[in-house]
Amino acid sequence: MSEKFYIVPAERHNQLVREAYQHRGYSEDEAAQAARFSDLAAEHGIRTHNAIKALHLDHLFGSAAGGCTPGAEIVVKDSRFAASQIWDANKKLGQATAYAAVDKAIELADQYGIGQVSVDNAFHYLWGGGYVMEAAKRGYIAYTNCTAALAEVVPFMGKFPTLGTNPHSWGFPTTDAIGFPIVIDWATSVIAMGRVQQFQREGTQLPLNAAVDKDGQPTTDPNAVNALMPFGAHKGYGLSLINEIVGAFIGGSLPTIRSRQAPEGEKRTPAFYFQVIHPEAMSGGAFAMGRNQSENVKAVIDDILGHGNENCLLPGQLEAKWADRVKKAGGLLFSEAEVKAFNEIAVECGATPWDYINEFKVEA
Amino acid sequence: MSEKFYIVPAERHNQLVREAYQHRGYSEDEAAQAARFSDLAAEHGIRTHNAIKALHLDHLFGSAAGGCTPGAEIVVKDSRFAASQIWDANKKLGQATAYAAVDKAIELADQYGIGQVSVDNAFHYLWGGGYVMEAAKRGYIAYTNCTAALAEVVPFMGKFPTLGTNPHSWGFPTTDAIGFPIVIDWATSVIAMGRVQQFQREGTQLPLNAAVDKDGQPTTDPNAVNALMPFGAHKGYGLSLINEIVGAFIGGSLPTIRSRQAPEGEKRTPAFYFQVIHPEAMSGGAFAMGRNQSENVKAVIDDILGHGNENCLLPGQLEAKWADRVKKAGGLLFSEAEVKAFNEIAVECGATPWDYINEFKVEA
After folding, report:
1. Per CATH, is A72-189+230-316 categorized as 1.20.1250.20?
2. What's the ipTM?
3. pTM value?
């Protein structure tokens, strides 16, 4: 089985994304950060969070809907804690805010071994794994979570959606050890809402315990779905809950009004949390068999994936494999439908559609 | 249905635990920390990690087996990172080490907003949830993970056990908001190995996708179990992997030799990681409807558990409910089999067995 992809040089992709964001009123720098992030997502095969999705979400919840303010300035709040910063993002573009927050957290980790940046009044940062992956590529352990734009998941044993599908994202600097950063980043629901729509189109049943109907009863009928269920019963519920609790400590308000209509005096903005650790700040320096830290990490991973486990994947491995394909192809890889969507974006913002694109086949 | 429990005053329980640890050569302070931790576990109904289990593990892997050294001194390693400490525990008693590490992380969080303590050459700290619960009761957000004493879990799609069942444990200071700290703490396997033994005794089948046989094939036959499977497929696998990767950065070595025979030059000790956050260090201070931080956390939790979700539980709620029972009973609650086990411990260390215990019924 093979799926056909088209090769789009990253510069051409990034130029279009920049133009699209600037057309919507974003500053040159914001547009550049949005393009950089879409490039990263596309490079790693994150098709659910590429530029098409980013611009679509901006239209639904962002600049066109008052959820995101082009040109907004981040305000750093006073804090008596040296390794911590608290920001009011003033609904600035999520990607620009998140990149800046990771940079600041890295700066704090360089000095204190660990640093955190909490962000109130944020707007959707798309793919959390991207930020921790970049930090990991720069040599740091990174973590982020954020509150959901929409409450789509019921608590374990619950009936009504009050939680998000949002992941926790961890990145580890394992490039020296195994060739790519380990990135752990997955939805806290069994499946994403996008999958439900896919099942509707295909007329197939959902897996068991993935969704509930309007009465809060589990259903496998994609047309009866009202909300999603957390993965791993109370365990995924606990993880999903953490995002909302962390958000509540930062300044986020009720999940059921987020990105929706909110009463006077209420808040409907998401919150972000970022944390970076310098790997030397947790190194005991006494590794077995004379290994250094990176060699030790490699030895542990080799042990985990040895003994008959050689076919197991590491989190982040598929993304790294996609990046290899992109490198080999000499450009980002998009499906025909995606190229079409990009060309619609080009028309929207008065940019030049992609007229000539090499064909590239990727085995599925 | 009701289960019969016996009321044991905490002081009497703690005295016996102290005597048992001192009988094994631990210092007065170590024995006191062990008693304090067993008291906390029993107070919250953590029957899998009470003093009986603690002393049993000490016998199997600890002071009787060279895994733990009574009277060991922790060495604080040099670090250029102000908010981070790295310790060599020299195989000191896990509970004493972990309590000290949490205290230090709190001290760092008071100053820097966030603090971390990484511990190499550690010994089993038992119930991670206990340490973060105590920190949460003191007003802090706390997190810990550790590497497993034994590799019992296969990676997702794997055949051979190279990972532990060890949890990640998060505690949140929500006592003002909802009456108890939220504590998220569960095994990264579908079930614990103790449950497999229970299924063997009862002659019942395991749930699907909970365990594999000697060929690495999924099995529901408790007698055919060779290893456990992670919960939530690749998601629980990712979480379980984090413990080993963090341990590898600190100084832990191969999971498959941990607590077992290790070749010359290898290490077989677990590693601990602790992190504490001061809640003010992540507060944006701009909560909706004039709420303060704690009121905001309460409002968010009320929203999550509203709208028809009123019967859902919060992580930590069952533990808090057990502590209420203990308070009402005026003593810790142990089953007849547990009291018998404690009296065997008393005989072992020459202490006075419990001669008179009030009966207390707890509805199951």
Report:
1. no
2. 0.96
3. 0.97
